[in-house]
Design a protein that fits this description.
Layout: H1 2-10, E1 21-28, E2 31-38, E3 41-46, E4 49-53, H2 58-70, E5 83-86, H3 92-98, E6 106-109, H4 113-121, H5 125-133, E7 137-140, H6 144-150, E8 155-160, H7 180-189, E9 190-200, H8 205-213, E10 217-224, E11 232-238
Parallel strand pairs: 5-6, 5-8, 6-7, 8-9
Antiparallel strand pairs: 1-2, 2-3, 3-4, 9-11, 10-11
């Protein structure tokens, strides 16, 4: 699946002069969500805000890999860890997790029904069909903030990619997730020694301080080089054992 993504990116001929074509437009529970094609790329737009496209999934893959690598020091390394992925997006994180036999249960929380449908039977299905068919995969159609506040399930890793970063949220209600109280809810669904990984379009020293204040340990930020512009980052933190 990952190879397919890389191939699609390699053959991308999108230029600044191409006109995006809207493939589907829905009014969802949190506003308008749009799927469009721009050259060879598929793009998701929410309430007029660009979220992501299929041009390059390296940061989404690192989000998953960084969380998995941080779990190698667990006391029971032979037990497959369960991962919760916040946000289905274009499917990079899910596909990469499903391609790794070292993961156990893979749960994806996605609040936009349209995005789930685009993956199950729409244009994004070519990217995620194998991952969705994996018996380890479960898609939960709900808001991530509500899920971490209400679920009784626990996980070894929580990978969040639902915004452009802690300081650049898609909806105002997501702000609470990155607060000290919201991070306490994230810690609640993590097992002792579990890893929280948060994707962001830019580093945030303030968010790092909030992670420390919420009781996380081993807080650090990893940069991901991108083709153009400043690097993306993944914020990493560990729930104490």
């Amino acid at each position: 699946m990952t190879a397919a993504y890389d191939t699609a990116a390699a053959y991308d001929t999108t230029s600044a002069y191409d006109t995006p074509v809207v493939l589907d437009r829905r009014e969802g529970p949190y506003g308008e969500v749009v799927l469009r094609r721009h050259g060879a790329l598929l793009q998701i737009i929410a309430n007029g805000c660009f979220l992501m496209d299929t041009s390059d999934g390296r940061s989404e893959r690192l989000l998953v890999d960084a969380a998995r690598d941080a779990l190698d020091s667990r006391p029971e390394p032979d037990v497959l860890p369960d991962v919760l992925i916040g946000g289905l997006g274009v499917g990079f994180s899910l596909a990469h997790a499903a391609a790794d036999p070292r993961w156990g249960r893979i749960t994806v929380v996605e609040r936009e029904p349209a995005i789930v449908e685009w993956h199950r039977s729409g244009p994004l299905s070519a990217l995620s069909a194998a991952a969705l068919a994996d018996p380890r995969t479960e898609i939960v159609k709900t808001d991530l903030v509500a899920f971490v506040n209400e679920t009784c399930a626990t996980f070894d890793a929580l990978c969040l990619d639902i915004d452009n970063g802690p300081g650049w949220t898609v909806t105002d209600s997501n702000d609470n997730l990155y607060s000290q109280a919201g991070l306490a809810s994230c810690a609640r669904v993590l097992r002792p020694g579990g890893v929280l990984a948060v994707w962001s379009a830019q580093p945030s020293p303030e968010f790092e301080r909030t992670l420390w204040n919420a009781g996380f340990q081993q807080v650090r930020t990893e940069e991901i080089p991108v083709a153009r512009g400043v690097p993306d980052v993944v914020h990493l933190a560990v729930r104490p054992g």
